[in-house]
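Operator note (shift B, R.M.): manual run for BamA/TamA family outer membrane protein requested after the automated queue skipped it. Running by hand, logging everything below so the morning shift can see what happened. Input copied straight from the record, untouched. If output looks odd, do not overwrite the archive copy; leave it for review.
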Amino acid sequence: MNSHQCLLAASLIAAFLCLSASASNDETVSSSNQAITADANSLDIEIVPFAFSTEAMGFSAGMAGLWKGAGQPQASMFAAGLGTSKHTWMTFLAANNYALSADSRWLFSGQFYEADYKQFNYFLGDATSNTSVKSDSIKADSRDARHHLSMRYILPMGAAISQPIRAALFPQRQVDGHTPWESGVSSIELRPFYESRELAGGAANISSDFSKAEEVWGLETRFRWDNRDNANNPTKGSVSELIVTADPGASDRASWWKWEASQSWFHALGDWDELAKQQVVALNVYTADTPSWNNTMTVNGERVYERPPEFAGARLGGLYRLRSFQTGRFVGRSVLSYSLEYRVIPEWQPLGSVPVFNWYDVPWWQWVAFVDAGRVADSYDLAELHSDMKWSAGGAIRFQVEGVVVRSEMAWGSEEGLFRVMINQPF
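Run finished. Output pasted below as returned.
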């Protein structure tokens, strides 16, 4: 887990598991189209401290706060921060799902993240290639930032012809067809973004085929068609997403652009006698390319390639793809990745009588077996992308608490085994 994800995991899980129970998001969203401007009867604000320890960060302590119905019933604000015994610190602020009016099709959000890391492992230059090994990493101090605004437009088709906000945010819906104009929720999202990473010491001088820029500015455009029957625990349907990211460059850095495509499918296998009430096979295919990779332009009198730095490139490893590898372990011009999961909800559900869990609404828990395969390459060549693929395999236990899916999983691969805790399904 990278540091940003470590902060989110610790603080979000603390916020949702350690606080007193409150109304679920379903109740809020169900009336959001009729009550965007309604005044809340009382503030729903929760604040909780948290602490954990990892080898990379040492002892860490912080605070997280969540405000549900932050000015509008469907909106929320979240803030978290932490400091560590190794002098690393992080801060995160998010404001989500604000609307202009009850019948608006626009949702506005923003996320702002700053951190200062001490002696973390980074993969740079040749250390990100498909032939690299774990020992190619380098320890360095780094100052990171990641900010974006989001303007999401809900298209008037499928399930969102009427009540677009409810259609977009309510976790359950019918799957009525196999095209965006028949079923599901389709949206276009514009994300102006800023991202930076300033490495200290010798790490900043490592030879690399990527851009040496320490910051990127640009626009991310997303088209998403969500045709699942349930956002938290889908049993049928699909999710399709196309992302185009462009940095126009500046006087001190080259322009570049990349595209990403992700497709997920879900298929129910039915129950399993008295052992399982639900079995689902879930498959995700992800691919990306950087078409500007071999183009050149002049920056400060020098011809340079139109490529992103490692932290903004097409990557594998982390919470969602090749889960036994660190975030950003592999980076290249192109990426191809497959993930297959077998998800089971057992008939046996003891969490209602387990201390702490019995304070909350925990309608189900889920056992998962998964396998990932993928690789990066310096050209978008399907034959090359399917050769010498890296792999991960593992198991997970996931459960829904007060409308939020918490997942804990263990993944093994050729380099190491990693245990992670985070929220939301990986796809």
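Quick read of the result: The first strand starts at residue 44 and ends at 54. The longest helix spans residues 3-17.
Leaving this for review. - R.M.
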